């Protein structure tokens, strides 16, 4: 009688039968893969957290450096350089009767230019144009002249407390006064300081805050 071949227990109907050790090995591999994925995810989360903390720390350090003046913003620095062009010369107080001044009202108060012009006339200033204008200047009053009118502008400023000087391209010695919303009154004539001094230009803080680097000034009397 012919002997039968021993039956292969690892094959059933043409399919491989998974043994217990193979099943355990497969499960262990799955667990190892899952653990690796978890470790990878934790590493990514940790890296993102460190990056965010670094960005926040850098922002705080930058803000503190700007506040302390250790770091300067280019736009602000440029504005400071513009403001620093204020004439450095010392001027004598010029006699009122030698100064030609135009008075402009950029406020919503009717008749302000005329009222101030009359006060200047009473102080012997030579008043030219008197009118209302639209100006971008924000402050008390802008005093504007060309290079040759700076001494006259200095005298005007001594009568206009808190005013800011600006230079334009005119070639004559005339001075424009542009009254703004914060204007209240001229200095009382008996207390006007007539000692030598320098022109008072816009404060850096206001020049940096303003969109315009200089006021909108009339190029000629209306």
Structure description:
The longest helix is centred in the N-terminal third of the chain and has 49 residues. The termini are far apart. This protein has 222 residues and is α/β, with parallel strands linked by helices. The chain contains 5 helices and 7 strands, in the order ββααβαββαββα. It has a 5-stranded mixed β-sheet with strand order 4-3-7-5-6, with helices on one face. It has a two-stranded antiparallel ribbon with strand order 1-2. Helices cover 39% and strands 14% of the residues.
Write the layout of secondary structure elements.
Elements: E1 11-12, E2 15-16, H1 20-68, H2 74-83, E3 100-105, H3 112-122, E4 126-132, E5 141-145, H4 150-159, E6 164-167, E7 175-179, H5 204-209
Parallel strand pairs: 3-4, 3-7, 5-6
Antiparallel strand pairs: 1-2, 5-7
Question: What labels describe this entry?
Answer:
two-stranded antiparallel sheet; alpha/beta; 222 residues; 5 helices
What structural category characterises the helix and strand content?
A: alpha/beta
Radius of gyration: 41 Å
If strands are numbered along the chain, what order do they take across the biggest sheet?
A: 4-3-7-5-6
The major β-sheet equals: 5 strands, mixed
Low-confidence stretches: 75-84, 204-211
Residues in helices, as a percent range: 25-40%
The average pLDDT value, as a whole number, equals 79
Task: Return the string of H and E elements.
Answer: EEHHEHEEHEEH
The fraction of residues assigned to DSSP E strands is: 5-15%
Spatial gap, N to C terminus: 135 Å
* Global outline: rod-shaped
Number of strands: 7
Number of helical stretches of at least 4 residues: 5
């Amino acid at each position: 009688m012919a002997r039968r071949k021993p039956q292969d227990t690892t094959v059933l109907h043409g399919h491989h039968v998974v043994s217990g050790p193979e099943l355990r090995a497969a499960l262990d591999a799955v667990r190892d893969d899952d653990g690796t994925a978890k470790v990878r995810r934790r590493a990514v989360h940790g890296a993102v957290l460190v990056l965010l903390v670094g960005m926040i720390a850098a922002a705080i350090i930058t803000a503190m450096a700007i506040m302390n003046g250790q770091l300067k913003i280019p736009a602000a620095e440029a504005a400071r350089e513009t403001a620093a062009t204020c004439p450095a010369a010392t001027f004598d107080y010029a006699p009122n009767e030698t100064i030609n001044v135009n008075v402009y009202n950029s406020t919503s108060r009717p008749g302000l230019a005329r009222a101030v012009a009359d006060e200047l006339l009473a102080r012997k200033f030579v008043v030219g144009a008197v009118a209302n204008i639209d100006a971008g200047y924000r402050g008390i009053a802008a005093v504007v002249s060309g290079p040759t009118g700076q001494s006259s502008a200095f005298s005007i400023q001594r009568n206009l407390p808190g005013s800011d000087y600006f230079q334009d391209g005119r070639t004559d010695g005339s001075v424009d006064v542009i009254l703004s919303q914060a204007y209240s009154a001229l200095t009382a004539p008996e207390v006007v300081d007539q000692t030598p001094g320098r022109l008072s230009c816009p404060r850096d803080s206001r020049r940096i805050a303003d969109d315009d680097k200089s006021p909108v000034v009339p190029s000629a009397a209306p």
